[in-house]
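Side project, low priority. Logging it here so it doesn't get lost.
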Amino acid sequence: MTAVPSAPISDLETAARAEAPLTLDTAPPRTLDFRALFALWANLGVSLIGFTSAATVLGRQGHELGFTAAVTAIVAGTAIGTAMLAVAALVGARTGAPAMAVLRGLFGTRLSYVPTVLNILQCVGWGVYELTVIAWGAQTVAGTEGWRWLFVLLAGALTTVLTIWPLGAIAVLRKYVAVAVGVAMVYFTVQFARQGFPDPGAGNWDGFLSATDAVIAVSISFVPLAADYTRHARTSAGAFWGTFSGYTVAQVWCYVLGVVALLQSGGDPDRILGSFTGVAAGWAFLLVLVLREADQSFANVYSTAMSIHNLWPKVDRRLLTGGIGVLVTVLALRIKEFTESYYSFLGLIGSVFVPLFAVLAVDYFLGAGRRGWNLTQDAPARWVMLLPWVLGFAVYQFLAPTAVAGWWTDLWTKAQEAVHFTPQAWSSASLFSFLVAAAATGAVAAVERRRG
């Protein structure tokens, strides 16, 4: 396989000083073991956005899922999404290339710019959301509705500093932050369990698959970022299992705690953080979670830079991360809240990256990847690989149109009417989108093998 060469690190002291390369054509140091990757993904699996996203699982007031159904959707969605995430992490460890550079092997260098631009938009959007949520959490801890601008600026500055030394940031996450976050999560779990919570949707499973899709979408949002970090993994097995176990445990825990907090706050997402400050010394433990939320914005800003590297491989990543950090900070100062736009954002992410992952995984393990992907700057275009990706995207939107604009929703609604289709409880957009894209990619791989 043609891949970015790796720089093996045998001396522990040298490994501790190693940092991510400044340009795309420099070999990545292999410093991250299972524990480091477990800690990284466990920290990314716990987030304030994860708590508030419990609303996408529980459903709107008056039509809530039962608690058992909600937890089942969380576990199922996380397992499915994280399995995809772990495979993407494995590919990154094997190739040694950042996530968007990996797509050169799938589409060719020039065509890989299409998903690269989409990923840049996704990462910038997530970065803005993260800074907004950090400011909201800080205001909750401080008990004020003011000073938002200050909290955004401080969060933006911390985020940017972390991206300058990304491997050093991951080391800090493993040694200190993961422990503090674990203590805070245990504390809130015990306190919430003591208080109890209502279950207004007891026995209701209507909307289970849509809730599962929402959870999958959050996990999937990290798929086009995974290789940016696991390219530094010491082993492929450590990359896969560190990613899968760390993120699965953390996201399930985070979402379940978020559902309980949401139920205790009367089902109002805007009051959910009040459940955390409402327990004894809750503000102190919430402060821990607010501060560590910076690792989410760090991941998005750093991966934006890695994506831009696929377009301009010679630009110093420190210039990129600095500029992107300023950009998301400025945008977060202007965008003060998000509601329905956030849920539409999640749906759009799922519809783009679920089928993209299916195409990548099938072609890497069963198609051209078995013979060796070309990841160089002159990798030739593979136009045919756009077909299964577009098919998967169309299936997702057909089953669950994203409400990004009225004309867009009308387009897919009319398509449903034209074939007399009404979405059913079993019509999971993520599942069918993945299967269609995977099957189409398998067909393309079979044709290529015959020609070969």
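Brief comment: Strands lie at 7-8, 29-30.
Revisit when time allows.
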